[in-house]
Hints:
The chain is α/β, with parallel strands linked by helices. It has helices at about 15-25, 30-40, 45-55, 60-70, 90-100, 115-125, 165-190, 200-215, and strands spanning about 1-5, 30, 80-85, 110-115, 125-130, 135-140, 155-160, 190-195. A hairpin with a 5-residue loop joins strand 5 and strand 6 (about 135-140). The longest helix is centred in the C-terminal third of the chain and has 24 residues, at about 165-190. Zinc ion (ZN) binds near residues 130, 132, 150, 153 and 155.
Amino acid sequence: MYLVLLGSPGxxxxxxxxxxxxxxxxxxxxxxxxxxxxxxxxxELGLLAQEYMDRGQLVPDDVTIAMVQDRLQRPDCxxxxxxxxxxxxxxxxxxxxxxxxxxxxxxxxxxxxxxxDGELVRRLSSRWICRQCQTPYxxxxxxxxKGGVCDVCGGKLYQRDDDxxxxxxxxxxxxxxxxxxLIDYYRQAxxxxxVDGTGDIATVSASLLExxxxxxxx
Length: 218
Ligand SMILES: [Zn+2]
């Protein structure tokens, strides 16, 4: 069972991937972890990626694809894997199709955690930090007792530029531009399953699990 998990920043993809890993007993293959592992171990691919990064360039698709291929060929991925953060582009999606075909496997489905932009902006722009002691707050999940004031030291709270609504909206625009072709690609392949990501973590987990089990029975 090979699954791809898609979701915009703030959709809770990392948390959900961990839950799926536990429930389905499939390894969670996160591209970010793969990169860090290859860089840390100074593998051939890691060193190659490092060269591009040192020059301030994007790591080319074929390097990323090779890292994922290397990972999927390890024995713990024999029964499948949950891919997170890969593919990001249509070229990478085609690379994934090819490597799975070479292994005599195929992709079973793509779970897309859908959350409306308004909700994502609300979630992502709720982080505030104390100017004095740096204690982080979240106006939805961990609000201070008194608005704008630190519980610990009474200092004033402020918002980093990255957490401001206008920055978050710009980030989401870029995300949608990049992933729209990928979503189309998987929709046309009949692999895309959209899951409502607006509920609490447990509700979204249950929906994802149900979708994954339906895919397994196909
Ligand atoms: Zn403080």
